[in-house]
Amino acid sequence: MEFLFSAAVVLLVFLLGAAVGSFLNVVIYRVPAGLSILWPPSRCPHCLRRLKAYDNVPVLGWLWLKGRCRFCKTRISIRYPLVEAATGILFVLVVWAFDLSLPTLGYWAFFSWLLALALIDLDTMILPNSLTQSGLIAGLIFQALSGWWASASWAGVASQLMTGILGAVVGIWLLDLITLIGSVALGQPAMGGGDAKLAAMMGAWLGWKLLLLAGFLACALGAFVGGAAMALGLISRRQPMPFGPFLALGAVLAAFFGQALISGYRQLFFPTL
Q1: Distance between CA atoms of 199 and 193, rounded to whole angstroms?
Q2: How many other CB atoms sit within 10 Å of the CB of residue 9?
Q3: Residue 105: what pLDDT?
Q4: Which of 54-63, 184-193, 234-243 comes out lowest in average pLDDT?
Q5: Inter-residue contact 163 to 230 (CB < 8 Å)
Q6: Secondary structure of the chain in the HEC alphabet?
Q7: Contact, 17 vs 88, CB < 8 A?
Q8: Angle 118-122-127 (CA atoms, 0-180°, nearest 5)?
Q9: What gap in Å lies between CA 32 and CA 241, rounded to an integer?
Q10: CA-closest candidate to residue 83, choices 3, 172, 141, 20
Q11: What is the pLDDT of residues 150-183, one digit of tens each?
């Protein structure tokens, strides 16, 4: 019975995440195009026919349609069901790591913002201000709610809110410093202004300690992937590469494993502290 209950919870959480992923597909497509994310309802981007409700079922709708529009038969990118499935899996992993709690609700929202921003940056090399700014505000609200959740006092709210504000400031400073160093080393602009705003958003959610770890992981992952791509001849040395996806991945890894990594680092290098 316990197994069946756990399986039911996992399924429900996955379906919730997949539904959110379906909405993220709308955000990823419409925000860079300057379109409303609420109106008109979902439609084929080619023939503009409104989709049926059962065509919008996350993941399954794409499979039922065999990856083509019901009306004009234009091929539908497989990325749509992949984003839905990835969001569902992320939601399940968050519940597995944090149980059903306020951090779970917060990280569901945070990871959704990150996924949308990462894919928009991958598509357009742009991180929209509307998403980074709204994500930063949401992160500060999350910090305030976390302070009340932990202490039920205004002092706790103020303390957690300062954690988010400090994290946001450190995020801007960190990316500005990395941009300056990279620009000097490469002799050309190393990053866009959106990366610093994304880092500020990450700091608002994670706090400055996990933000620094996320930034380190992002740089390490970016250097590894970029170096491998250049070695394989996929990109040139001066070809721009979006950094947002690496920042997003670094933030997710820091949220899941950050405390353990920081604790292990301290025990390894500063065992007496």
Answers
A1: 10
A2: 13
A3: 95
A4: 184-193
A5: no
A6: CHHHHHHHHHHHHHHHHHHHHHHHHHHHHHHHHCCCCCCCCCECCCCCCECCHHHHCCCHHHHHCCCECCCCCCECCCHHHHHHHHHHHHHHHHHHHHCCCHHHHHHHHHHHHHHHHHHHHHHHCCCCHHHHHHHHHHHHHHHHHHHHHHHCCHHHHHHHHHHHHHHHHHHHHHHHHHHHHHHHHHCCCCCCHHHHHHHHHHHHHHHHHHHHHHHHHHHHHHHHHHHHHHHCCCCCCCCCCCCHHHHHHHHHHHHHHHHHHHHHHHHHHCCCC
A7: yes
A8: 60
A9: 18
A10: 20
A11: 888 889 899 999 999 999 999 998 888 877 776 6
What would you measure as the largest C-alpha separation in the chain, in angstroms?
A: 68
Task: Return the residue matching tokens 């004009």.
Answer: 72
Instruction: Dump pLDDT digits (tens) for 178-231.
Output: 777 766 655 656 566 788 999 999 999 999 999 999 999 998 998 888 888 888
d(CA 168, CA 173) in angstroms, rounded, equals 9
Question: Under a CB-based contact definition with an 8 Å cutoff, are residues 137 and 109 in contact?
Answer: no
The percentage of residues in the chain with a pLDDT greater than 90, rounded to a whole number, is 51
Return the exposure string of 176-198: e unless at least 16 CB atoms fall within 10 Å of the residue's CB, then b: eebbeeeeeeeeeebbbebbbbb
Amino acid at 218: A
